[in-house]
Structure formats: C-alpha cells, structure tokens
C-alpha cells in the first residue's frame, strides 16, 4: 500500500526530473543541476543555513560548489529527492566528503557503513586519514582499532609511512598493538622517519622514548646501537639504548608493559558440540604451563544434545582455524541415516565465536582433511551415519575467497582414512571402503595436475581412524585400529624413496585418533581403552575414554606421558596453533603429571 510519504517523495522526484518550480541551480564545474531551495534546506542544515542566513548565496539563482565533482553533485541531489543511492568503492570517498560537508546525516551514515565494511589491510590507513580529515570520530576509532589489531600485516604494506606525527605517537604508545615483537614497532618508526628524513628526524627522540626497549632482545639492541644512523644522530637516544643494554638504573624507568600481541602462546586446541546446534566449543591446553583455557564452553559430558562427532579441525593459512562437517546428535537421538553436515565455521579469537563460512558442496563425516597453501582439501568420508554411503567426492576451500571448488574424485569411496600433504601432493593412507573392508592402500593426489595415483606400496597392516603428520620430508602414521585390534604401531613413510620405517610403538594399548604436530613433537590426546573384566565375570570389557596427554619426541623417538588429565581434552580431534590468551578464560584447574 502506497503511503502519503511515498506519494510525496514520488511527487518531489517528478518535479525534480521535469525541472518544474525550481528556484536555484547548483553548479559543479560545467554541470548545472536545477533544484528547489525548500527541498535542499529540509534535507541539509548546510543548505538551510545558506538560504536563510544573511550570506551572499542566500538570494543567488546559481550557486557554485567548489571541490565537488559533477558526478558527486548529481548523486547527492538524486539521493535528496529519491532516498536512493548507489555507493561503491569508486565513489564512496567523494560522496562521504561531500555529504559530511553538506551535513546530510543519513547519506553520511550510509557512506560510513559501506566504508567500514570494506576496510582491509591495504586501505585502512587511507580510511583512517579520510575519517580524520572529515571529523568522523566513530569511523576513525573503528579504523584505528583495525590497524592496531592487524598491526603486523599493515606494517608490511608500508602505508604507515604516510601517517602524520600524531598518529605515529598513538601507535608507538599503544598497549593495544597486536604485535608479538617490540622490534617490529621500532622498524615501523624507523621506516616512518626515513620516509621523510628532513622533516621527521627531529621527532625521532620523542618517539624513540616510547619504544619498550626492555622487551627487545639484547643482541638486537646491540645491533641497532652499532648500525642505526638515527641512533647515532641523537646522543640522548644512544645513551638511553646503552643504559638498557647495560641494565643501568635509568632503564628501569622505561615502559616495559607487554603489548596486546605479546600475550600469545602456542596451544593444543579442542572442539566439539556446545550449547546450541549452530555453535561449537573451543577449548585449549598449554603444554608448557599446563594451563587449561576456554573460548567457548563445551556441552556437558553427560548430555548428548548438540554433540558433534566425526568432524574435522584444521589450521589453515594465517592460523585460520576451521571446523568442518560431522554428525550432529539431536537430543541423544541418532537414526540409521543421519545426514552428515555441510557446515563450515571459522574461529574468531577476539569475538570468541565461530563464524559461518560457505558450506561444503557435499555433506560428510569420517572424512580426511589437508591444507595446501591457502586451500583446505576435504576428501571422501560418509554422506550419513552410522549406515551411510561412502563417498569419493573431493573439494577444496579457498580461505581468502570463501568459496568451494570440486576437483577430481578419489578412485574409490573411502571413509575413516588419514591424509597428509607433502610437496604438491596429498597422500591418503588406509581407511574403510564401501564394502566395510579395512584398507592398507596409499593413494596420491597431484594438486597441480588434478590426478590420482595408486602408490605401489602398502601399510604394515590395514588401518582406519589413524592420523598422518608430515614432518621433515616424512609422513608419520599413528593411531586408529583395524577390525580386530587397536593399532599402536607408528609407521613412517618416505614419499621420495617410497620406503617405510618404524617409530616407537605407543606405550599403551588404546585407540588414538587425536594427534597433532607441536614444534618438534607429536602430541596425542586421550584415546579409547578397553578395561578388562574381573576373573569370573562374563560381562564384555568396557571402553572408556582417557583424558591424558602423551608426547612423542621426533628427535629422540621416545614417548612420555605429560599430564594425567586435560580438563577440556578430546579424543576425537585436536590441532595446534598460536592464540592470544587475552581472548580466553583461564581455568583454575592445572593439569598435573
């Protein structure tokens, strides 16, 4: 139903397009735009003041608008009469500047909304400058926070060389900088001064005092003292640096507070179901400090509602953590053909939430996953559970473009298999086929050629639910089971020589599935053990899940148990990457040996 407001707006548009009853002409270069004073004044305090106050433009028929392009003027007047505008990356800057000058608040807000949604590492400094020049405090604040949060990436673009002194002072003084190393802040300062040495070198002593020198390693400070011309050109800076190197009294007065990005730790990461079907848990363990952390709470262990199983976690390019597929238990019910999920989530550290990504083309559980540069490959699996079609479908996810692309399928459908990337190839080891046969085969996928090959080699014995880890030109295969027993043997495959060797067996009889590379070690989380019955009892043995943590030293080839219990550990899946503990809640529970 057309409202009075709609009819009024349509009538104004008709008067504008037919140029009837116009009483003022706005001019930008050679573009003349006839308008109505009342309409302009009603939408813009800038024009209202111009037409009602005693200024020279108040009674002029033609008004020249300087520093506004003809295209921008036409777009703004069209918006005033219609309420519609097409904002894009090409016109947003000129529109924002003009709308802000004319005090057209609604259009300014639309431009700010568009600009804020398009901020990235390459343009954030330009957006900050635009907001600063136009006095747009909200946009300025959010863009500044973006620069602080992505400081390392922004610093690599050299755009920080263009900022003014005031913003450089803010950056060097900020606790909120997301940088792991203080020397990176000094490098940015150095490049900023060198970009315009004649004009900026006199500011160096003021800025240098804000560098947190005690956070920089002594050998780096010594190198700066010996070679840096900015230091040599300012004796006060030289004396300050020497005092820090020698740890003299005056150096204790220098700020040594850690910046935000310096609270990072490499962690083991676990996930699974949470309190809602559209989210996942996120918990961590620090093997060095033995502390447990929570990003998102798990679902209670006694409650199977929203439990997710047979999924995959993977750390992709730029420490992107993805949660893919699996089976969702709904109120502890799981029928014979529960469809596997297509869902994909990316973990956002600062928000402490899983963000939805583009879904997979094929729902899958009990599949394999492998990372290759900016791609994440998902291979095979089952389309449903527990009795589901085993699939040969393969696709990859582009982490930057947020799109999936199907590639050549596997020669046969396989589930419960292991995958590892080596060079430009993905190797598939073991698994279960559509006839429920346990496999000892090795398949090789050539990423550049998009072709599959059956490798002329075999596993020592068939294996499913194992984990494959690439380390120093070798693929380590461990865990899982066959039809008859758990597999505690570690097989080591050399893809170059097509040869096998063996590592040290896992020290306990259990089915292990959650293994990951962590520095020069493989960590194994938990596993499933069978407890024997007492003599004289006829009950079958019970399977229980362990919550301990074992470490395999890849240098010595020795196993060791690190802790008895990881508070939020999982025997299903784990990965490792660096996280900022400021975005996690620390548990009071400390895991013990």
From TrEMBL:
Record Pfam families: BACK, BTB, Kelch_KLHDC2_KLHL20_DRC7
Keyword Repeat set for record: yes
Domain of life, source organism: Eukaryota
Signal sequence segment: none
Residue intervals passing through the bilayer: none
Keywords: Kelch repeat, Repeat
InterPro entries the UniProt entry points to: BACK, BTB-kelch_protein, BTB/POZ_dom, Kelch-typ_b-propeller, Kelch_1, SKP1/BTB/POZ_sf
Annotated BTB domain residues: 22-89
Full protein name: BTB domain-containing protein
Species annotation: Patella caerulea
